[in-house]
Design brief:
Shape: rod-shaped
Structural class: mainly beta
Helix content: under 10%
Number of domains: 2
Number of helices: 2
Number of strands: 15
Keywords: Plasmid
Strand content: 25-35%
Amino acid sequence: MAFGINYMGRVSTSANNDTQKVWIYNGTATGSNETVATIAASGYFNAFMVNVALGKGPLGVGDLIIINGNDASAFYTVQTITPNVTVSVFAASGVVGTSNIQDGAVTANKLATDSVTTVKILDDNVTSDKIAASVLKYVAVPLTAANIIAMNGAPVQVLAAGGANTVHLVEHACLMMTYGTTQFTGGGAIGLQYGNTAALAGEAASSTIAAANVQGAASTMDMVEGALSSGAFTAVANLGLFISNNTAAFAAGDSDFVLHLWYRTVPTV
């Protein structure tokens, strides 16, 4: 079929024909029985014009046409009225796409309490920073051979301080060495401590790993457990965790490590 004037109706009531007008077109099975795409094609509404060559109405540029097709409904605006009447989609009826929403316009207050569910969260997309402080967290810290050699005198921070009135509690940790070409010599027991104190002399945060465990010529994996002793929490509150070793500095080795750390950050008050 084609445009049928009996299926076109004016919704707006203003007597001023120079203002924007609102129309509705019935393309459903009770009307012209056509799809929205067919009705919205260039020239479809030419027959509705008094003189399309001269751009004489009743349609005007900017008019709104609600097109009800036999497949969908949509709002269109009139773009041109000569030499052909053309329309462009204003917005799909009942649909708001992400492109229609201004960046930052949706706040937490606009979301239903139960609108964010686990099925809507991508796998591996929730980081430790988004989890409550007291929940078990994990971090992997790469350590170079240079870090290991220097950490007797210059402990390496593996976790920043948690903030005022908090303390990090180590659940367990795993120190993994990927063997290079040269073995480490010297050194001492390796462990985690609160604060930056040389030679592992700070408040202990974990049990220790014997120096011999990292002096071999093979890749190794050593587990330690948390080891916070009883006492005043002022010695450990709001302090970062550092890795160090006692006795003496390691030397010679060229193997790199990764420290895998599981911990909780809990309030002290």
